[in-house]
UniProtKB/TrEMBL annotation:
Protein name: Coenzyme A pyrophosphatase
An example molecular function term from Gene Ontology annotations: metal ion binding
Ranges where the Nudix hydrolase domain occurs: 23-154
Required co-factors: Mg(2+); Mn(2+)
Presence of the UniProt keyword Metal-binding in the record: yes
Keyword Isomerase: no
Record Pfam families: NUDIX
Keywords: Hydrolase, Magnesium, Manganese, Metal-binding
Database matches in InterPro entries: CoAse, NUDIX_hydrolase-like_dom_sf, NUDIX_hydrolase_dom
PANTHER family linked to this entry: MITOCHONDRIAL COENZYME A DIPHOSPHATASE NUDT8, NUDIX HYDROLASE
Native organism: Oceanobacillus arenosus
Length: 206
C-alpha cells in the first residue's frame, strides 16, 4: 500500500474515540422541577438492594441498550422507568458535555424539565427515595474538593522484561478530584457531583 492509497483510504473518515465500541455507555438526566415558583433539581437515592453503588445519590439514568437509537432516548427512557412517569411529562431535554472515565465508561448527561413531579411513582427496586434541592443552593455554593490518587498495579504475569526499567519502571499515579455537596443531611458526590458542577458552571457562564 503506497502513501496515496493510505491518504485516500483515510481522508473521509470521521474521528471517534479509540476503543469506542468497547466502552460501557450510559446516559443520565438532570431533572428540573418547579416547586412554589422556584427551580429545584431532583435527585434519586439508589436502592440498597442494587449491587452497584447502593445508597448513593444519583440522577436518573443507566446503561444505553443496543436498541436505544441515541443517548438522549436512553436518558428519557431510564427516567420514565425509574421515576414512574410518562415520557410526555419530560420536556426540553438538552445535552451537556459527555464524560469519559478511566474505567472504560462514557456517560452522556442531559438536562430537562419534569412537569408532574408530584405524581411520580419511583421504582422501589432501583430507587429508595427522591428529593429535591433548590437550584439557587448550587448556584451559590462551591463544592468541597478532595484529591484521590489512582495507582497502577500490574498483574503478577506482567512482562516487566519487555519495558525499560523493568520492575523499577516509574508508573505514575493518576490524581483525580472528588467533589462533595452537602445539603439537608444528604451528600452528593462522585460522578453526580461532577456532572452537577459542570451544569452549574454552564449557568454561570451564560
Amino acid at each position: 500500500m503506497d502513501v496515496l492509497d493510505i491518504i485516500n483510504k483515510l481522508k473521509d473518515r470521521v474521528p471517534s474515540i479509540l476503543g469506542y465500541e468497547q466502552l460501557r455507555k450510559s446516559a443520565v438526566l438532570i431533572p428540573l422541577v418547579e416547586i412554589e415558583n422556584e427551580t429545584h433539581i431532583l435527585f434519586e437515592v439508589r436502592s440498597m438492594e442494587l449491587r452497584s453503588q447502593p445508597g448513593d445519590i444519583c440522577f436518573p439514568g443507566g446503561r444505553i441498550d443496543l436498541d436505544d437509537p441515541e443517548p438522549r432516548y436512553c436518558a428519557i427512557r431510564e427516567t420514565t422507568e425509574e421515576l414512574g412517569i410518562a415520557e410526555s411529562t419530560i420536556k426540553d431535554v438538552l445535552p451537556l458535555d459527555y464524560v469519559t472515565m478511566d474505567r472504560g465508561r462514557i456517560i452522556y448527561p442531559f438536562v430537562g424539565r419534569i412537569t408532574n413531579h408530584t405524581q411520580m411513582r419511583p421504582n422501589p427496586s432501583e430507587v429508595s427515595e427522591v428529593f429535591t434541592v433548590p437550584l439557587a443552593y448550587f448556584l451559590n455554593t462551591e463544592p468541597e474538593k478532595y484529591r484521590v490518587n489512582l495507582q497502577v498495579v500490574p498483574d503478577a504475569d506482567f512482562p516487566f522484561d519487555l519495558i525499560v526499567g523493568g520492575e523499577n519502571y516509574n508508573f505514575r499515579e493518576h490524581p483525580i478530584e472528588e467533589l462533595f455537596y452537602k445539603y439537608d443531611n444528604k451528600v452528593i458526590w462522585g460522578l453526580t457531583a461532577k456532572i452537577l458542577t459542570h451544569f452549574i458552571e454552564l449557568l454561570h457562564e451564560k
